[in-house]
Amino acid sequence: MLGISSLPGRFGIGTLGQGAREFVDRLQMSAQTYWQVLPISPTGFGDSPYQTFSTFAGNPYFIDFDDLYYEGLLPRDALDMCDNLFTGDPCSVDYYAQYIGKSQVLHLAYLHSAARLTEQIEAFKKQHEGWIQDYALYMALKSENEMTPFHQWPEELAQRRCNALQAAMLRLEKEVHYHIFVQYLFFRQWDVLRKYANGKGISIIGDMPIYMAPDSADAWMGCDILDKQGRVAGCPPDYFSETGQLWGNPLYDWDILRKTGYAWWTKRIAHQISLCDYLRIDHFRAFESYYAIPADAKTAATGQWIPGPGLDFFCKIKNVLGELPLIAEDLGYLTPEVFELLRATGFPGLKVLHFAFSPDGSSIYLPHRHEKNCVVYTGTHDNDTTMGWYSRLCSAERAFLDAYLDGIDEKRVHWQLIRLAIGSVADVCIIPMQDILGLTSSARMNRPQTSQGNWQWRLLPGQFDDGAIQKLANVTKLFGRLG
Q1: Which residue in 43, 86, 118, 168 is deepest, having the highest Cβ count within 10 Å?
Q2: What is the pLDDT of residues 280-298, one digit of tens each?
Q3: pTM higher than 0.90, yes or no?
Q4: Identified catalytic residue from 215, 227, 329, 330
Q5: SS (HEC) of the chain
Q6: Of residues 25, 144, 156, 282, which has the active-site annotation?
Q7: Looking at the predicted structure, is the pLDDT value of residue 336 above 90?
């Protein structure tokens, strides 16, 4: 598991270019057949890939400028600018530098090559006509309004009044076309990378957040399908937070969605599964029942559970799209009803080893309790690294882990957990790159219920070296996990 942002490279963040292709090559050498990424949509407040400006668009930060230059789509002087724009720590993403620098270079690419790509861009617009025009106008209006949330725009724009939108389209025509051009570049490069990965025997597992961001093109365009009772999304007190997690995303009006046959969701899932081989659907348990929190609440402790759309949702979408290559992120507060919904859909759920070693030995995540139809992880992007996790275990948890492993080797406990995961009967095993490298908490990707300092970690060039590759290949072959 490695998000695109964490790939090595010279543009301040991972991109879809040579660094990504080299990582695919290393996955192949290490006998891997899956690459799980984080959501690839454009990040908004807090730089979280789960709070994005669109659930359909791609992240412009991931566009590779070397590939644009070699294709003749970026002038040499624009490429040379990058040496001064992206000079930060190669171990960490500077999102402010991305926000400033990537736009400058992409505007130069637009001036240099957009006119020569008119036919291709028009075909792209037709292919994505259900969202691209509105997204581009939304982004142009955000720029015009100093990137403020859309509910702070002039009322006629915030409420999408027809005359105001028509005037804005005329006024911002060039900026709208620029954002369409940028999306064309992203999906062009994504398609190349996915085909490259598939050609090397690597299937890409995408990731889809369940909720739209409160400030997003989706919320701006789709207020009719959103909850109107002043409630927002989150989860109750849990492993990650004593007061719960207050995400703040708008909730769905499932009654309205049901009457449309879940049309918006069908379009969204169709789009996402067209981009990857398998799709992890975030916060699956909310389809059974979801946690609704008063919008003015200070913490998530005061929410309530409300029934979700249940099996009807997946049946209706399957009737339109056919078999769904989904993986259910079924973590959190689980009830018999959630387990029954998972069983009824047939989707594989998740088993996370960091949650397994409660001293009473009752955890469903212990490897000897796994079933084949699941995906096992040492930890996820929300967990600490395995080395960091181990350092924080209480004495009782550490004693249970020691007994389970028949002896802890503190210097290689990350590999001990990797062996447990790979040796599980689970059909699929996903290991975070930080665990393969045995990195400490400084390499953690996200700390839930915090808004600063997340999503920044990056892999250094050469860090996933021949030794790690061979070790991963050996244990993968030992347990028969070959494609």
Answers
A1: 43
A2: 999 999 999 999 999 888 8
A3: yes
A4: 329
A5: CCCHHHCCCCCCCCCCCHHHHHHHHHHHHCCCCEEECCCCCCECHHHCCCCECCCCCCCHHHCCHHHHHHCCCCCHHHHHHHHHHCCCCCCECCHHHHHHHHHHHHHHHHHHHHHHHHHHHHHHHHHCCCCHHHHHHHHHHHHHCCCCCHHHCCHHHHCCCHHHHHHHHHHCHHHHHHHHHHHHHHHHHHHHHHHHHHHCCCEEEEEECCCCCCCCHHHHHCHHHECCCCEEEEECCCCCCCCCEEEEEECECHHHHHHCCCHHHHHHHHHHHCCCCEEEECCHHHHCEEEEEECCCCCHHHCEEEECCCHHHHHHHHHHHCCCCEEECCCCCCCHHHHHHHHHHCCCEEEEHHHCCCCCCCCCCCHHHCCCCEEEECCCCCCCCHHHHHHCCCHHHHHHHHHHHCCCCCCCHHHHHHHHHHCCCCCEEECCHHHHCCCCHHHCCCCCCCCCCCCCECCCCCCCCHHHHHHHHHHHHHCCCCC
A6: 282
A7: yes
